[in-house]
Amino acid sequence: MKVKNILILGSAPNAVIAKDWSLAPFSSLIVINNAWKIRPDWTHNIFPTDFPNEKRPKPSSTQCLVSADKYVSVQNSYGGFVYAGGTMAITAAYWALATFKPNNLFFLGCDMVYGSGKTHFYGFGTADPLRKDISLRSLEAKTSRFECFAGLVGCNVYNLSKEKESRLVYRRKDFSSITTETTETPRNIDKKQFNLALRLETKLNYFVPDGKYWKHENKFKMEEIDRLDKIWLKCLVK
Predict the structure, then answer these.
(1) What DSSP designation does 102 have?
(2) Cβ 168 vs Cβ 110: under 8 Å
């Protein structure tokens, strides 16, 4: 059976290895922010509202630009930005899951690890996940949360990076092993922990309809977010 594979490409230095990849195994290539510069045959470019106009590409008739008017409602349907995580690698993940309903979702250039060298493939940039943000206290917890939602609808989530360190909790996979004919089984979810996390989210009610949660930070308690993150980290059965 032919499966639907989606590749999400970020802007980490290792993202450039995708420049020479064949896109034959993938149904779509979603590039985040400046990653559209890596190769011209992307299908979707996703970026935040404050991404400068001069940095945005001019799409062809077969390419789409995706900004807040398209992804805020999607992320809200998964609980909103405070719970899901307010960084584009995660926003792109939820948007792709809802939009394409893929069998497999692959990430490259999204490890969100920043050392002393250049931060992005084009040099130095502002590392979004490093900012002080109530929704990004544990990127591991936020990516665990996403994989749970993906797994519930039969979608596998993989990290194609070969970097030793990653903030993504997704299983690693080698690009050479990807085909359009086979798929694995999503990781098991601890339903008790999963339901516990959802109940706590409902109780806290940290939902902001317009997605601009940073304007309401006085409503959120850091200790409650940390408590929630700890639960999400227990949800995936390894």
Answers:
(1) -
(2) yes
CA distance 93 to 128: 16
Residues 25, 40: Cα–Cα separation, whole Å: 17
What is the value of pTM for the model shown?
0.93
**Digit-coded pLDDT (tens) for 135-178:** 889 999 999 999 999 999 999 999 999 999 999 999 999 999 99
Going from the C-alpha of 184 to that of each of 58, 79, 179, the distances in angstroms are: 37, 27, 11
CA-to-CA separations, 194 to 103, 145, 207, 231, in angstroms, rounded: 21, 9, 18, 8
Nearest to 120 by CA among 55, 65, 38: 38
Q: What is the pLDDT of residue 148?
A: 98
CA torsion, ordered 113, 119, 120, 122, to nearest 10 deg: -170
Question: Token pair of 174, please?
Answer: 């080698």
Q: Determine the angle formed by the axes of helices 139-152 and 88-100, rounding to 10 degrees.
A: 0
DSSP bridge pairs for 123: 120
Cα distances (angstroms) measured from residue 88 to each of 95, 98, 137, 188? 10, 15, 15, 26
| Cα–Cα distance for residue pair 42/63, rounded to 1 Å | 7
Q: For residue 106, give both structure tokens.
A: 């692959």
Reported confidence tier of residue 78, pLDDT bands at 50, 70, 90: very high
The helix (run of H) or strand (run of E) holding residue 32 is strand 28-32
